[in-house]
Amino acid sequence: LVLVVDFGAQYAQLIARRVREARVYSEIVPHTLPVAELLARKPKAIILSGGPSSVYAEGAPGIDASLFGAGVPVFGMCYGFQLMAQGLGGEVAHSGAREYGRTPVRVVEPGRLLADLPTEHKVWMSHGDSVAAAPEGFTVLASTDVTPVAAFEDVARGLAGVQWHPEVLHSEHGQQVLEHFLHEIAGCRQTWTMLNIVEEQVDRIREQVGEKGRAICALSGGVDSAVAAAIVQRAIGDRLTCVYVDHGMMRKGETEQVRRDFEEVFDALDVVDAEAQFLGALEGVRDPEEKRKIIGREFIRTFEAAEVRVFGSLAPEERGDTAYLVQGTLYPDVVESGGGAGTSTIKSHHNVGGLPEDLQFELVEPLRTLFKDEVRAVGEQLGLPSTMVWRQPFPGPGLGIRIIGEVTRQRLDILREADAIAREELTRAGLDRDIWQFPVVLLADVRSVGVQGDGRTYGHPVVLRPVTSEDAMTADWARLPYDLLERISTRITNEVAEVNRVTVDITSKPPGTIEWE
Ligand code: XMP
């Protein structure tokens, strides 16, 4: 067990995930946990995360320096690095010299931590203070133009740290640095696999749902809910019923595809046709957050009705007191809906922030701490079909949040056609796995003038939004080949009568988000 002490970094989950990638089990604990309790959990190593900008700031979280003498290896990153330096008598300078973003770092002495790394490489920095002098007994391993002490280690005591964020992808060799600490300095064994996650969750679900409890799983057709369902099925067998809601905002051919794929894996799939219900509730609504809230609410109402239909005929002693709802909520959904510590709401993901207050279900969310690609790895371990595991993400609210303006059946049909063309051409170009997601957005309230076959047109624009990403927390616009873009543009304007203009969104995330609403 490796404990990641969270100093309020957005990155604590990312660190935990990198530790899992190094095949070591990890958990996150708050920085308010006393050192004695940290140690009582008998961790093999402790990682101190990044955090607020200055150890000198008023109310800045600290850690009792006795931690560093307890004989447990400790690794500090960014703020955690400064805490270690300060706690052991080093010098942290409040110099005002800042480093943000990609920064070149020079290895002056590789030691164990930076062994085999190029002498000069680029890492992701975000700090105002810097360590001016390492504590006694430490070897300084790296520096930058601004920071004389950018990394240090004391192998004898199992202590090490870096000023940068090795957990983010923009830091070159970050994973290697973390692994050097875990494997070489702390001596952690590499035994953790994705199957351990499954086993752990199966135990947890059995405990939550009990001997009799029954659960409904909200299958969306995507990988997350499929993996969540597969895990819950392992835990409670046929006491799980999968429900798929066709809310009328799915893509072309999607419901049929989902039905085929899923009936192979989960024998009972309850498909609910709820188009009229959802579109009725969305009538006249243009505000994105309002749409999301309405869709979230209608989803829950549909599941409640399904629950009554599926389990209602059972005698009370056969069904338990609580109704459970399984959802494939991932960690990024939790963070962006404002669920992470100290994070603000970007948008209410329908399965998190969009839940109604009078929710009748208790939630079962086995993937709440995982990132998408980890979920894919779990899905592969569970033997789910690769069409399911590698399906590109599609948001629960569906095309409803890709129509800018009111959602109507007619607008959905337009978008469905344009979207189908874009997806078909992407697949034909063999780029499905290179592109994280390829939303097509209909600017339904915008019209522009065009000319087609000697006649004036006055149609709608669509926006192509192909992005690359690792976990949807950040994304970049995908540089699709021009000839592919041309084919998509020509086909959409020829085949979808209402669309006379095709544009490409070239905004990264941040500052944009992947979806437009
Ligand atoms: P954004 O637009 O915030 O999206 O950059 C990040 C990722 O989340 C997906 N997304 C959702 N998924 N329910 C979901 O299940 C939602 O309400 C929702 N909103 C966005 C989005 O497609 C992207 O993959």
TrEMBL record:
Residues annotated as binding ATP: 220-226
Taxonomy, superkingdom: Bacteria
Keywords linked to the UniProt accession: ATP-binding, Glutamine amidotransferase, GMP biosynthesis, Ligase, Nucleotide-binding, Purine biosynthesis
Record domain GMPS ATP-PPase: where: 192-391
PROSITE patterns tied to this protein: GATASE_TYPE_1, GMPS_ATP_PPASE
Pathway(s) annotated for this protein in UniProt: Purine metabolism; GMP biosynthesis; GMP from XMP (L-Gln route): step 1/1
Reaction catalyzed: XMP + L-glutamine + ATP + H2O = GMP + L-glutamate + AMP + diphosphate + 2 H(+)
Pfam families (UniProt xref): GATase, GMP_synt_C, NAD_synthase
Enzyme Commission identifier(s): 6.3.5.2
Cellular compartments per GO CC: cytosol
Active-site residues from the entry: 78 (nucleophile), 165, 167
Top EC group: ligase
InterPro entries reported in the protein's UniProt record: Class_I_gatase-like, GATASE, GMP_synth_C, GMP_synth_GATase, GMP_synthase, GMPS_ATP_PPase_dom, NAD/GMP_synthase, Rossmann-like_a/b/a_fold
Single Gene Ontology MF annotation: GMP synthase activity
Function: Catalyzes the synthesis of GMP from XMP.
HAMAP family membership: GMP_synthase
Subunit annotation: Homodimer.
Name of the featured protein: GMP synthase [glutamine-hydrolyzing]
